[in-house]
Design brief:
With about 280 residues, the chain is an alpha/beta fold. It is globular, with a radius of gyration of 18 Å. It is built from nine helices and seven strands; from the N terminus they run βαβαβαβαβαβααβαα.
């Protein structure tokens, strides 16, 4: 696997999954662009291989900043083999609460638009290298397969991302560009730390990274982490909608942005962006 990857870009590199991605890729000898908001965390990762890393702290939804990041990285190391759009945020959502509309807007900016702004500069550059393989990984979620009570913003962002990645895959099929949709279930990261409901199949980030990279290397277009959680979600989806909803409504809901245990959302209502949006 390591022999196929030499140059990788990882957004959300400060989160639990992002840090493990960076560590495993650096251990394999890859050059890694570390994109995140916590400079100190990025510096700790960069110290593992200073000559093969560069640090970037843009808002992933800012296309100008992401273009500058991509331009600088490609000037240093050329077109990457792999771009992992891992940055993402999560949080409870209640449409009846006006402040939550801003939560939904920001979540869509990071989880959906942020993937497109991550990929765009590298796809534009790929035109000058028509024979060069480029793998694009979008970090979706099993939550994007069906809406969950109290989680409408996150589910909508991930469902939209899945559809976007399907479109992108169709557009580039037949070229060296490969598009991979990764749908994690529950990973033991900051995004799930505040969850008050059952999380079947909870997976450690280091295990998830090994499965993810193995799937990408094998050319799998759809990667579910772990597979058994995906099968459980599909089984539940076979229930009549009324039964499915009744079952999920009995579960505690994810904390909203204003509630204790909520995951910070950078850039929300002008807040500081020093917390990293990542899985």
């Amino acid at each position: 696997m390591s022999s196929l990857l030499h140059n990788v870009v990882v957004t959300g590199a400060c989160g639990g999954l992002g840090q493990q991605l960076a560590r495993q890729l650096l251990a394999q000898g890859c050059a890694v662009a570390l994109v995140g908001l916590q400079r100190e965390a990025l510096q700790q990762l960069a110290a593992l291989a200073p000559e093969r890393t560069a640090l970037y702290t843009p808002d992933v939804a800012d296309s100008t900043a992401m273009q500058a990041m991509a331009t600088d990285w490609m000037a240093r190391h050329g077109l990457p083999d792999l771009v992992i759009a891992n940055a993402g945020v999560a949080g409870g959502f209640d449409t009846a609460q006006a402040p939550d509309l801003a939560v939904m807007r920001r979540m869509l900016e990071i989880n959906l638009l942020g993937v497109a702004t991550t990929f765009q500069p590298f796809l534009a550059a790929a035109g000058a290298h028509p024979a060069r393989p480029l793998a694009l990984v979008g970090m979706a979620s099993i939550a994007g397969w069906r809406g969950l009570p109290g989680n409408g913003a996150y589910c909508a962002s991930k469902a939209g991302l899945i559809a976007y990645l399907q479109s992108l895959r169709a557009e580039w099929r037949g070229t060296p560009v490969r598009v991979h949709t990764v749908s994690p279930g529950y990973l033991r990261t900051q995004l799930t730390a505040g969850n008050r409901f059952a999380m079947p199949g909870l997976l450690e980030p280091d295990v998830a990274v090994r499965l993810l990279l193995a799937g990408v290397t094998a050319g799998r277009e759809h990667i579910v982490l772990p597979r058994r959680t995906g099968w459980l979600a599909r089984l539940l989806a076979c229930l009549p909608a009324r039964w499915h909803d009744a079952l999920l409504r009995r579960q505690p809901r994810k904390p909203r942005a204003t509630e204790a245990g909520a995951t910070p959302i950078p850039g929300l209502n002008g807040s500081s962006s020093d917390s990293d949006p990542s899985h």
